Amino acid sequence: MMILDANTIPNGSTLTADLCIVGGGAAGITLALALLDSGLDVVLLESGGPAEDKTTQALYAGSVADARMHPEPERYRQRRMGGSTTIWGGRCMPFDPIDFEPRDYIAHSGWPIGLDDLRPYYPRANQLCEAGDFAYTVETAFHRPVRPMIEGFDSPEFSTDTLERFSVPTDFGWRYAERLRQGPVRVLQHANLCKLDNGAAGAPVGPARVRTLAGNNVFTVQARAYVLATGGLETARLLLANPGASGRGLGNAHDVVGRYYMCHIAGTIGNVDLAGARSVWHGYEVSDEGIYCRRRLALQPEAQRRLHAGNFIARLHHPRIPDPGHGSGVLSALYLARPVVPYEYAKRLYGDTPGSLGLWLSHLRNVLLGAPATARF
């Protein structure tokens, strides 16, 4: 059994490895799986265990300047085996070529790599996410005619043929636990990286100082190389928490670590009048290999450049759920389920609309009147 509890590691001991991976989420597990047959001695450190733990999750607690603009850091992230794949919705899509380009109207834009550098790895990523083939257009994903999103729609600014594909959603911690358990990688759960520093400039990074919460064990992992795979926020925090030769943090000699973080900018932005459309379909299609897909309105690269805009997509959506005036039993049933909907989705589905007895009764009426359709759904 190669999935171990770090509390069983003797206090003060040193583990040696060729590679130490920090983080047991999607990135860390993916790398560990890729190295199962490499012959390398690999240690993977994960702060949590197989299930959510309040004490461990509290290590993510923090504050934000404006909770309306960004949730608290412990809300959308999970500090456990599988990381945030334990709570994600499964939506998958690749970057677009323009995302990597420098644009003179967006300061500091441009990546040192392009889409062609990532393209060889996308099919395998799709497999690991269980999102089917790497096919993100209607033409490549379907070998049969599919109904148009908006019949007769033709625009030089927007396309309707690109897709989002939806995973199960796959929980990497659960889905790949057995392969990790049977493999040579040593997975240490409840292991918190506390220090990963080096001395003079050019000196190797390490060793890693690791601590547990329950037993307060402290031990060391001495590896030839280290990979931080703890996500966009936590990786930057760990780098900045270790001064490094520059004194500004590991890898931060130019003071840019963490400076280009961006979350999803998302929301309901308006209404669309589709009265003139011959037909409209904004639901899901199932691809040839059985994966749910959804089309979206995507702003074309040429339009982005002309308008000096960033990348943008829009989805046709249902009416506002909290307003019982929509008369839909299905949407009202979703409103009545509000107390059990996870925070991330509740915030998007219901906004900040306060509940009231009158609202609940109106939604209950919709459900009762629409019972046959709701049951069919």
Description:
With 377 residues, this protein is α/β, with parallel strands linked by helices. The chain is 24% helix and 16% strand. The protein has helices at residues 26-34, 54-57, 115-118, 122-129, 138-141, 172-175, 177-182, 231-241, 301-307, 329-336, 343-350, 357-369, 371-376; strands spanning 3-5, 14-22, 42-46, 91-92, 158-159, 163-166, 186-189, 192-196, 208-211, 218-228, 285-286, 292-295, 297-299, 313-314. The protein has a seven-stranded mixed β-sheet. A four-stranded antiparallel β-sheet has the order 4-6-12-11, with no helix packed on it. A three-stranded antiparallel β-sheet has the order 5-13-14. Strand 11 (285-286) and strand 12 (292-295) form a beta hairpin. Helix 10 packs across helix 12. The two termini are 44 Å apart.
Give the helix tally: 13
| Average pLDDT for all residues | 91
Please report the total strand number as a whole number. Answer: 14
Largest beta sheet: strand ordering: 1-7-3-2-10-9-8
Helix and strand succession?
A: EEHEHEHHHEEHHEEEEHEEEHEHHHH
Shape: globular
Q: Provide the structure class.
A: alpha/beta
User: How large a portion of the residues is in β-strands, by DSSP E?
Assistant: 15-25%
Query: Helicity level, as a percent range?
Result: 10-25%
Task: Describe the secondary structure blueprint for this structure.
Layout: E1 3-5, E2 14-22, H1 26-34, E3 42-46, H2 54-57, E4 91-92, H3 115-118, H4 122-129, H5 138-141, E5 158-159, E6 163-166, H6 172-175, H7 177-182, E7 186-189, E8 192-196, E9 208-211, E10 218-228, H8 231-241, E11 285-286, E12 292-295, E13 297-299, H9 301-307, E14 313-314, H10 329-336, H11 343-350, H12 357-369, H13 371-376
Helix pairs in contact: 10-12
